[in-house]
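Notes continue from the previous slide.

Worked example: a multi-chain complex. Inputs as given:
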Amino acid sequence: MATLIFLFSAAALLQFFISYCRSLIAASIKQPLSAEVRDVTGIASAASGDDFARVIQLLQLCPERPEDQSEIRAIGAYFRLLNFVRATLARIIPALVAWTEMERGQCAYFAAVALERRIAFSRDMLSQQLDA
Amino acid sequence: MPGSFIYWLWTLETILEVAVIVCALAKHSFRRYLCLNLYMLLSLIVSIGRYQFLSHYGWYSSEYAYFYFCSDAVLTIFLYLALINLYLHVFDEMKVEKYVRLTAVMLLTGTALFSYGVVQQSSQRMLTGFFYELSQNLYFVGLVLTYVLWGAILKLRETRTQLIQVVLSLGIYFSAFAATFALRNIYPNFESLGYVVPVFACLLPLAWAYAFWRLPVDARMAPSRLAVVPR
């Protein structure tokens, strides 16, 4: 009985976690990227999963915004989960390859939007210092 | 005795609980999600109470054990009521408030009776055993109810982003705890679980503080985009 409850709970946890991460990403998908961020990140039209690591490295170069740290961590965990699914389950179920790739691309786009916000935040801080 | 890591997580959880209440008050969401905020307030009071009991009686004392299990059961019941309150939010326009409340009371009574039946058969420590069993069963009932609520959100095309994120984070919390309780039953000597539970306990107030602080009340999203299986 306990094993059955564990399996059901673990499956539900996975499903809720994926939906929660998607709800975080959904807010940024609507936001268009500026030409500047597109140049910096190399994301021309649609982001791909391979862009994620590069965009995260760029994010780490910017001053941190306290309000976006937890969501970036959550999406980072989601990205690692997708990589795991791609390396394991997707080999058995080929339909998962396209799904994980699309999700990884959305994670990269989310990170690019976060980068855009951090750049704007840094500029605001700089202008405030200059004004002071 | 709890290590410094556990104390650190405990402090973090308490700070996050304060953050939820402050964020809800600052963004005028306190009354809208009254049950959720009352749960956080109670959780904060319980954290302080547990610290008082721990410092007065010690980790291995029966006083601390009674207070811990009793407060845990009360908190779980409050969280269950908070979940029912979310049901009322989702089914607001359907005027089924009376039926939701009646079903919730019946389910809670049924869970309490079932827990009592299990403890009566197996345990010598009736009171703490009952509180532990009740918490464990309520986490699983909460998980099933949250799953049903999530299904209703998808079916009814509920679009309020704040409500969706609150429900999803509650789903993560209930399923994580239900899985932990089940693992503890399968492997009673699995000590690492003692470190996992406080980590999960921090996630719920973190997600709620984020939802109240960052998301505007009128923010909307298409829930069909969030389903794992495309609809």
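Summary box: The CA atoms of residues 136 and 181 of chain B lie 6 Å apart. The radius of gyration of chain B is 18 Å.
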